[in-house]
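A sample follows:
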Amino acid sequence: MAIKSIRGLLRGSEKRLGVRDFFHLPVRRDIGRPCPLCLPASGKIAPGQVPRGSILILSGRDADDLHRCREQKAFLNRIRNGNFSCLAFSENREPPEEIRRCCEESHVALFSSSYDGPYLLSRFTGLIRERILKIVVIHGVLVNLCGWGLLITGDAGVGKTTCGLDLARRGHIWIADDILEVVKRGRRLHGRGYGTARAAIALRGVGVVETRTRPEISRMHPESSLDLWCELRMKQEGPGEEKTRRIMDVPLPFIPFPSPVVHRDTPALIERWVQAFAAGKEHV
């Protein structure tokens, strides 16, 4: 279901945004555009240039200045005449009473966060990307085996790229390495390389190289469905771990495998696991 209100965007995201307190959360406030713009107050964008539904992050001096009469009056006019759907005060700062009243009268969401300005801006941008644009960015490798898109994740140095290249050497389709952009379309996930990293591979001890230069890769594609998820680990967890994990509320069969650093047959184990799904011997 598409999120159309600022309330719908913020509810359930308190921990992610470090929300300390909601001062006002309007029941009906249209975000106003397919993707609201998240702006730092220091950006000094003219009121007439603020896109409808924009979210404003206040931190440092910008927030402190609002306790001065002159700056506060100008800012109140900016709220009344602007297109903001939300104001967020970072670093545990509290908005002055006049700002609270103005936000309530103008149906603008208002909250304070424990995070600093740049971090809150980053978290808010990620929330918008995920919940409105239906996109998340994940660190890992994506390979397609037997028509099944496999996400390989794990800590740095655990052998994700090495494992992906070994699977490509076995004839499977290479999709992307390092930074992946995962998009939700309906109830399905699709993955691809992120930005300029789409045509590159990051090799430990070597650096970033072009994908087409790797002899292990004979088949590659810019995008694949994302159907399965495995995680490489130096040490295995105990029993009882969940066999399903979620990305944007889409369940994916999940299994941990030993890192190829400590178990050289890991690519073969992964290949057999995926082949079992392709043959219908495992159930999604």
